[in-house]
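Newbie here. two chains, one complex. Structure please?
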Amino acid sequence: MLRPLVHFFLIGGLLFSAKAVYERNAVQGPAITVRVPVGASTAEVENKVREAILLNEARRYGWDRTDPIVYTHLIRNMRFIEPDSEDDDLTLFQRAIEMNMHAHDPVVRARLLYRAREALAFVPEERMPTRTELEEHLRTHSDRFEREQRVRFRHVFLSRSKRSETLAADAREMRDRLAELDDSAPSGLGDPLPNLRPEQSATPSELEDDYGAELAGLVQEGLIGAWRGPVSSVYGLHFIQVIDQEPAYVPPLDVIGAEVRADRLRELRKALAQERMAALRDAYRVTIERAP
Amino acid sequence: MPSSFFRAFVVLTLAFASYSCSEDSAPPAIDEFGRCADFNPLRQVFWGDTHVHTELSFDANMQGTRTTQDDAYAFARGEPIALQPYDEDGTPTRMAAIDRPLDFVMLSDHAEFLGTLKVCNDPGSPGYEEQQCVDYRAAQQFDAMPEFVRDVFVRINGLLNLPSEDAAYPALCGPGSAFCLDAGTDVWRGIVNAAQAAYDRSNSCTFTAFPGYEWSGNSDGRNLHRNVMFKDENVTDLPYGYFDAPYPEELWARLVGECIDADSGCDVLTIPHNSNLSDGVYFNDRMADGGLLTPEYVELRNAMEPVIEIYQHKGASECLPGAATADELCGFEILPFSNLATTNLERITPPDPKGFLRYAYGEGMRFESSLGTNPFQYGITAATDTHISAPGFVAENDFKGHGGAGQPNRFLPPPPGFPDVEYLSPGGLTAVWAEENARDAIFSALRRKETFGTSGPRMTVRMFGGWDYPSDLCDSAELVAQADAAGVPMGGTLDPQPASSAPVFVVSAMQDSTSAPLQRAQIVKGWLDGDDYQVRVFEIAGDPNNGASVNLDTCAREGEGFGDLCGVWQDPDFDPAQRAYYYARVLENPSCRWTTWQCSAAQYECNDWDYAACVARKDELPPSDFSCDCCDPATGLRPAFCAEVDCSDPGLLAEAEERCCHQVEPTIQERAWTSPIWYQPPS
């Protein structure tokens, strides 16, 4: 049911954006007078001006006469004030226009503003991001999409809860045992934790969340090969052997296309709306009247 | 008019062309199992929230939430979010941020009014001018009176209270509800797209988003809500709410027919929640048509609902103090309300023990005996149920109100004192044990119930059950590999093993590195003895009498606890002929509840405190005045005032004294609940 209306918006959107660009290049745009309360702030005045421009644009394109919602609304109004009328819809609509009802009705106003704002942010087909543009967006805003560096490391843990007074001595013994290991994994050494693995890949942020800053800092130093530690956490003492590091990177578009596209469209809609509004604002000659 | 039609035709063609073109510009990435850099076949823990509302939910929207699904995803990844109240210029007056990012999220906006909101906000919609929409928009005005807003909210949202046979979309939705169905389809497409855009498909696997919604039937105020979670972007055409499918059975049937059996790659599950607010009907022994449960029904419910929310903003649903068993820890975050309506009205009504999980687990075993399948074989999750687009915002010391059923804080100036009703809370989190942070792995973990819920802190718990675990398993650095190889993880079912005497369970837990240390680990056993079910709680690790406490003036924690705990426990009373379930409960040392945190930071004086005066004049006080809330005995901070109050018949007491009978605890013990491991005797 709404689908035709959505497409009707698009018509308006295309026309509106074309006209907005035209206005930007025009020598002189339309002149309007905007009435604001005496005490209105600068921001309030500017809002009123922008609304007035959008309404004027909507009316310039005749949306107040051709829009199907305005059409049905005005007919409904007319049937309310002329309940006994036997005129057909078109006649009633024309009479409403003659009575200038479309110029003052709040619903018509809201409808026109809504269409105008939709049109301002509308992304026409030729502006829809292409693959090349998305690649460019990804390149120029790579910071938004960068993935944190990762470190692959081995981990031996000694529990403070379990070892209590012997923790320090056990740690010294463990350090010696680890030093004797060659490149092999420390199978069976240390205490379990539910989320601890003898070998894992993690980012420094994840490690800081899980074990605190001290362990994360040690891993981030990235000295490969040597067993290091112990470092302390709320759980006990930890020994770490960094095996490999994967630097921060930006995934390719094929992998994060939906993420990049959504980001680009958000940006584009905002930019188009601002650009078109600015063009209209420049083109219009606005007189402000302050009224009590 | 012909030119309009011509233009419409041209642009319609252009619009479709641009749509397909834009889709081609960003090809969907392949989401293969095993793609993540940190893949662990023995599985790792991931933290998430599967119950989140944004501006798309009617109730959140009416409470002034203006933040979108994109905002909610950004919040979950660690970015700050704007909170109401907004000032006249639309500037938010509050901000919030999570201390650590979440791993996964499902946003669950109420399905019922997705289309309604769009219709009422879109002057292009044929329903835009209907009176309900006019009222809705009037209620959205900055200067709308709170009473008017509440009236509009009740008139529209109240449709969810109607009996199922009368369930219907609001009148504004037009003939056949077409306006809202059409608009709802568009909104649903946006929800799926937002999840697609938020899902990290790189091999870093930083964040997983699932499309979903909430089915929100609560006939006569009896909450039967469940969240609907899709595995990925293969979803049903419509989000089916109460008005489309007024009975849970109908919802499941539609999801099976249009998703699971549709041969489209679609998979879906439903997550029940707030059985505590159902007047005890959530685990009824009757189907919607009044008939007794059938084998087909219990099989369908078992298949569709692998997990349940044990705790969230609107209270815990584990067990009720005094019911069925002596378990002093059942008093955690119990709402003094029996259903959603009394919660919304803040009318004290005793909750029904039949609305709690202990009852469901017992009944489930009985149905399994008689019908062959356990309809209530639930794994455990927890969530926030936030209505301010703030997934995972669980900090007790930074609670800003979730707005689910409490104070929206929409209006300026905000009410003095607490940002939410004192009985509500920040809610909890779901943890899953999965191979990697990706949709397939997490969804599968939920299906097999390898999950646990916490009351907020990220304490990590692992539990396995088997027949031959050694008693020194906790000393093995390879505990997980050994336990996994010789038993089943949480959520699993132990088959009988005639040669063994009794099952053995191992529970390994570690505290949240930023929260309180652990105090103890327990196993809760429930079993079916004939037609009766029993429950007993066993201490298996830690020290319940470790003397830990809290300074209520400063909220500083005092006393020692445990960074990690591990225990191996064999059931001493095992009877191989009896059905049984076992779940672990792990507790932190005590800490301040959010109400106590706020009073600890506030200035107030209770000498002349008067409950009736506070009720009458609260809105006239400055927002910084916490005396009405902090002096209220319901906060549990006035033991001397309540010492002599006899609560045997609260109805006979003066209002202020009566408040002593419905106190929240000033301190809490944050906790984790694992999914049970079930034992099934030989048939």
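Moderator note: Residues 148-246 of chain A form a domain with the Chitinase A; domain 3 fold (CATH 3.10.50.40). The longest strand of chain A covers residues 236-246. Thread marked as resolved.
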